[in-house]
Amino acid sequence: MTRRLAWTLAALVPLAFLGVFFAWPVVTLIVRGFFPDGAFSLDAFTAVFAAPRTWRVIATTLAQAAAGTLVAVAVGIPGAWLLYRTRFPGRLVVRALVTVPFVLPSVVVGVAFKSLVISTGPLGGLGLDGSFAIIVASLVFFNYALVVRTVGAMWSALDPRTAQAAATLGASPARVWWTVTLPALAPAIASAAALVFLFCASAYGVVMVLGGASYGTIETEIWFLTSQLLDLRGAAALSIVQLVVVAACLLVSNHLQARQARAQRFATDTTQDTPWRWRRDGAATLVTAVVVGLVLLLPMGALLERSLRTASGYGLDHYLALGAPGSGPISVPVWTAAANSLRTALLATLIAVVLGLLVSLVVSRRPRSAPAQRALGVLDAVFMLPLGVSAVTVGFGFLITLNRPPLDLRSSLILVPIAQAIVALPLVVRVLLPVLRAIDPRLRETAQVLGAGPWRVLASIDVALAARGLGLATGFAFATSLGEFGATSFLARPDQPTLPVMVFRLIGRPGLESQGMAMAAAVVLTLGCAIVMGIAETLRPKEARLW
Description:
Elements: H1 2-34, H2 43-50, H3 52-85, E1 86-87, H4 91-99, H5 106-117, H6 132-157, H7 161-168, H8 173-201, H9 205-210, H10 218-228, H11 232-264, E2 274-275, H12 278-308, E3 309-310, E4 313-314, H13 317-320, H14 334-363, H15 370-382, H16 385-388, H17 391-401, E5 403-404, E6 407-408, H18 415-437, H19 441-449, H20 454-466, H21 470-483, H22 486-491, H23 499-507, H24 512-538
Parallel strand pairs: 1-2
Antiparallel strand pairs: 3-4, 5-6
InterPro entries: MetI-like (IPR000515), MetI-like_sf (IPR035906)
GO biological process, one term: transmembrane transport
Main location: membrane
């Protein structure tokens, strides 16, 4: 009974946190939309879905998500081979480099891509400004690392003897790929594709900056109805549509991740990477170089160039101006905003890691009964929901629910870290859960035979091995919190802005100096995320298959 009570509490504490700070705000916002005058009404659905604009927005969302997913998977598979099955100097640096975009603020990425395609940008003559192609490119920018790391981690664990046996029996390299390697990688590829589709369908910042009115999505339409028209009923109707899409993606992803976990039980523990060879790895190297160069580095290079461009040439003037006193809508120096970001990110990371560890320990259990197994699967899916629900919905929901007793947090500085922890929590679970699921049950059985009690087994095996993934989990949580913009833009106090909010404010101000300072602040934020992810990459355990 004591053990059951402890495991129940370990599940209830994170569920209570998610219920109060995620489900309650989101449900309240939706309920207010359907009960505008205290009585239930479907007028919102009738009005929203009768409008041609709504169907255009839904179609655009699905088209962008499908195109972004297909391109990310197509270019991510060669990158997975190169970075996880071949060995060359600087491989860890490249791994960290391709991971940084996943945790960058969306507003920064939108501005970086915008700087490429405007009339004065390097690609201004191609007519890509406001096009479908540039939006898809930005979505690939964000999700390339997800495909590379998910597929690459699985690929590095495959036993090469199966492919070698097929080759010995006369199969060509192409046939070995189609009949041996691809089927083995299928669960990882499908799992990555489901998550990429989820993230593409819920993209916000880059679509706001790059899409405009022509390529609005469900996410941007929720923002428009909520903040511009104050149409809560219409926003609630679209939120329901988004939740349906998210739930479907999560169900598919959860099923595919279970298949991936089962496949990993038969993975070899031997390091399978081999020295890089041009004849074998040349094609993958060229594809990866093009993607890294054009999709990842070129936008960041344009961002750096604009941060150094001044009225009199090139210099560090914009970086020096980051410490100047604020004026107008810029109420504090930018470096003060950077310090605020560090403080809130540290607190958000602490919350996310502690709760994520509890969730991972509970979900990684292997009960014998089918109902218990299904319950753990549902629990796992529940903690993925914050990744797919609109950050606008969460932020606005905070404002209308946490503004009165018993939880009046409007003036509290804890509100922003809580919102950031909600966003980071699923990533922590996704890092720690594969580590715990990879534990051989015979280790626990051996410890029990040697006389270790249940708590000793948990502490010496589960918690000890989970600690190997805490470095990577902490890195992802910190970098994600550092760059979170959607909910933070609603919640940050004017005198306590974070760095992403400050970048957005500076971008909105006219003049070369303000634009240059925005770019300089964005470069500082990018560099911070890159350093954090570089450190986290060195601490990555091989069991963290997803990442």
